[in-house]
Amino acid sequence: MGSLSDLENGEINKKEQEFIKKNAQNLSNSMMRKKSDPELVSKIRFKKLREILGNLQEVILGTKLCLLFPVIPLAMLAQYYHFARPWIFAFSLLGLAPLAERVSFLTEQIAYFTGPTVGGLLNATCGNATEMIIALLALYQRKIHVLKYSLLGSILSNLLLVLGSSLLCGGLTNLKKEQRFDRGQADVNSVLLLLGLLCHMLPLMYRLSVEPALINNNVTTSILGLSRVSSICMLVAYAAYLFFQLRTHRQMFESSEEEEEDKVAGDEAVIGFWSSFAWLIGMTITIAILSEYVVGTIEDASDSWGISVSFISLILLPIVGNAAEHAGSIIFALKNKLDISLGVALGSASQISMFVVPLCVIVGWIIGVDMDLDFSLLETGSLAFSILLIAFTLQDGTSHYMKGVVLCLAYCAIAACFFFHKLPIRNNSSGSSAA
């Protein structure tokens, strides 16, 4: 990491900048951005005011989702004036979409000044900031069922919906071209997902191996202990994956298309380091506020709309929260850049499965909330078949629209299952109750 003057002047090795810009998630989110017109603020005489307005222009108006920003104060006003809670939930959920995209933009800006290692770690931490904050707030409020469904939904939406729609749209657009991708990155993420699946299945299999009449506090405590040990293993594996991605095998995770390199070669930071850092803190706080509204009103929205909490948490939250990243993945698939689309979908799924989920278990351990990895049979089965389906889909390194059709239909089938899943959730030690 350079000196303070280096941070402000953006003096960083060109090769490192290219690695930052070629990160799949950064490239995907960049498709939802739009270039601002510097002429709008260049005529302002006062330098400080010009810088402030320039930052506002880049951060607030620099995204195609800027029309959703007014929803954020609406959500806060609705909460303050005690509007109907389903309205608070809807406004808050919509407000999270542009915030999630802007967090990605700001971490990318900071990465220009800090180098690829720190930038990569920051991107890995903030890449799914919305899901992480919602999960931690649900954990704090002891809504374990909302936590588990939202994280499972994020994994499934990335694996089936995002990747499936990308393969479908890319295949239909490039019917006369054979779409190929680098299997190396897909194999690494598939292995990580399978390891995460094993860690999820062990507590479930342990519970199912015990006769229902014999399940007592000792068994529950053992499942909790097994989940915590498995979570530590998952976090160690994710740390090794980051070292693998950022240090020893960096080239495997770079976009190799020449035209993409030409496109990003002229990119540079548009706001300073400290401005980006301040905006990132502000955006994160805003996400936390809206996420608290979402977690606090989700049951009321479920009752009002007649939709189960499981469906809202597993389907609606991931789709709206990551709309920008999902759209970017599809756009790159349309341009026959499947490596980027795969990096977005598989990278996000791996991050949630191997980092966010075990992190919640460890944080719950610290604050005294009994969060485990037992996601019940239906949920774990859906995850298992989704990962296996992805592994078979990507095994030959080629793609066509039929693979996308299968993945999208699999997601629709799972969504339909949880739409009708309105039975009470199995009671656990944390006291979670109804779906």
Q: Report the count of strand segments.
A: 2
Outline: globular
Number of domains: 1
Q: What is the CATH topology?
A: A middle domain of Talin 1
Named CATH architecture: Up-down Bundle
Q: Main β-sheet: number of strands, strand sense, barrel status?
A: 2 strands, antiparallel
As a whole number of angstroms, the C-alpha radius of gyration is 22 Å
Cα(first) to Cα(last) distance is 47 Å
How many distinct helices?
19
Annotated CATH homologous superfamily: NCX, central ion-binding region
Summed over residues and divided by their number, the pLDDT gives a mean of 80
Going across the biggest sheet, name each strand in turn.
Answer: 1-2
CATH C-level class? Mainly Alpha
Structural class based on helices, strands and sheet pairing: mainly alpha
> What portion of residues belong to β-strands?
under 5%
Low confidence ranges: 1-12, 15-21, 256-266, 425-434
| Proportion of residues in helical segments | over 70%
The SSE string, one letter per element, is HHHHHHHHHHEHHHHHHHHEH
Main location: membrane
Family: Belongs to the Ca(2+):cation antiporter (CaCA) (TC 2.A.19) family. Cation/proton exchanger (CAX) subfamily.
Subcellular location: Vacuole membrane
Membrane topology: Multi-pass membrane protein
How would you describe the overall organization of this protein?
By secondary structure, the chain is mainly α. It has a single domain (22-254, 271-418), classed as A middle domain of Talin 1. It is built from 19 helices and two strands. It has helices at residues 4-9, 14-21, 24-30, 39-42, 47-60, 71-80, 85-114, 116-126, 129-140, 144-173, 183-208, 217-248, 258-265, 273-305, 309-321, 323-334, 338-367, 376-393, 401-419; strands at 179-180, 398-399. The protein has a two-stranded antiparallel ribbon with strand order 1-2. Helix 9 (129-140) runs antiparallel to helix 10 (144-173) and helix 10 packs parallel to helix 18 (376-393). The longest helix has 33 residues, at 273-305. It starts with a helix and ends in a 16-residue tail after the last helix. The model is unreliable at 1-12, 15-21, 256-266 and 425-434 (pLDDT under 50).
